[in-house]
Amino acid sequence: QVQLVESGGGLVQAGGSLRLSCAASGRTFSRYAMGWFRQAPGKERGFVAAISWNGGTTYYVDSVKGRFTISRDNAKNTVYLQMNSLKPEDTAVYYCAATGLRVGTYREYEYDYWGQGTQVTVSS
Asked: Rounded to 5 degrees, what are φ and ψ at 17?
């Protein structure tokens, strides 16, 4: 079992930055690849970024490439999402998730554990 708790969301102006954190419980965090997903109002949840178990491989959806960076600290059982140059269309609830795969994936159904989400609102 892995429990995930996101934090770091909030209200920011367009062009600003936020860093989301996702703290995981348990001793086996390093066995899991991690992902970030988001759900905007009236839309389905979608993939944002993923990172392999050791941080060596990362993936991003095209719309955030060059602006967002996913990273992890296995000693702290935490995965991060640094979000720069934020746009109003980045407004969503952001979720972190853990998959037993060694390399992250954009496939939502591959993820076994989910956090409760944190709201990010970007004003224009």
From this structure: -135, 150
